[in-house]
Amino acid sequence: MPVSLAKDPDDGARQSGKREAAYVSIERHLWQLLADGGGVEAPLPGEIELAQRFGVSVMTVRQAYTQLVNAGAVYRVRSKGTFATPRLTDELDHMTGHGYPDAWRTQSPDVSGEVLDFGLRVPPAHIAVRFGLAEDSGLTYLERRRRVRGVPVAWDTRWLLPQVADESTAADFARTSVFGVMEEIGLRVVTMRSDIGAAICTKEYARTLECGVGEPLLTRELWCANPAGSTVITGTSLYPSSRFSFRSTTPLTELHFEDPPHTRP
């Protein structure tokens, strides 16, 4: 997904007649390439190519690229080059029963998933309470990682009803969404609540999400219920904020605003 063109970082310097640093000109050029859709299918221009084009050293080009890496706009692949960081947007008010993968593929066709852990586990006490079960009861545990163009964009942990482990396999969850698997085994999901928050990337999160320690993450606490209102899915998702965002659209046609109260002179 093209990265939005950022405001020229040295616009004030050019207007005042000051000469900008060489790496700033290259950085602005790279931002424009990203805004035009570059770096998605093919890598952005290499350091040597840009150094020759702008008549500067490779170190100067590297400094410009470092600015984009630090901004989360690009990522580097050894022996392949530098690419635009994939970014997905989750439309909170347009969720359907098809699940997230199908919605995400409308933004980027190269969405893949891998199951990191699956099976019957004894959940933490607060999870057992959500399902109305005794603390030593087993639930189905699922852990997955989602990638776009090979870059991790989401890490999910899910707790599901115990029969899910008996009637499905890890391969099922690699093939389709949780909602899809639930439908296949006859478990209806009619309500979903998402609580969106934020966290700081720890060493553990950094290993799984392949991002830097200390980077901001978006979090989603998920709860789903069946027609009777009983919990059938709960869990947490983590998203690097440079690769993922949430959007919600609220119609305002039915709102009526009162005239503001008069203020004293």
In short:
The protein has ten helices and ten strands. By secondary structure, it is an alpha+beta fold.
Notable traits:
265 residues; alpha+beta; Arc Repressor Mutant, subunit A; Chorismate lyase; 2 domains; six-stranded antiparallel β-sheet; two-stranded antiparallel sheet; 29% strand; disordered N terminus
Q: Mind sketching the topology for me?
A:
Layout: H1 11-15, H2 22-35, H3 47-54, H4 58-70, E1 74-77, E2 81-84, E3 88-91, H5 100-105, E4 111-121, H6 125-130, E5 139-148, E6 151-160, H7 163-167, H8 170-175, H9 178-184, E7 191-200, H10 203-209, E8 216-225, E9 231-240, E10 244-247
Parallel strand pairs: 3-10
Antiparallel strand pairs: 1-2, 4-5, 5-6, 6-9, 7-8, 8-9
CATH superfamily of the largest domain: Chorismate lyase-like
- Which stretches of 5+ consecutive residues score pLDDT under 50? 1-16
Strand count? 10
Mean pLDDT: 85
- Whole-number total of structural domains: 2
CATH class of the largest domain: Alpha Beta
Strand order of the largest sheet: 4-5-6-9-8-7
Shape: globular
N-to-C SSE string, H for helix and E for strand: HHHHEEEHEHEEHHHEHEEE
User: How large a portion of the residues is in β-strands, by DSSP E?
Assistant: 25-35%
Helix coverage percent: 25-40%
How does the major sheet shape up?
A: 6 strands, antiparallel
Q: Tally the helices: what do you get?
A: 10
Derived structural class? alpha+beta
CATH topology of the largest domain: Chorismate lyase
Using the CA coordinates, give the radius of gyration.
23 Å
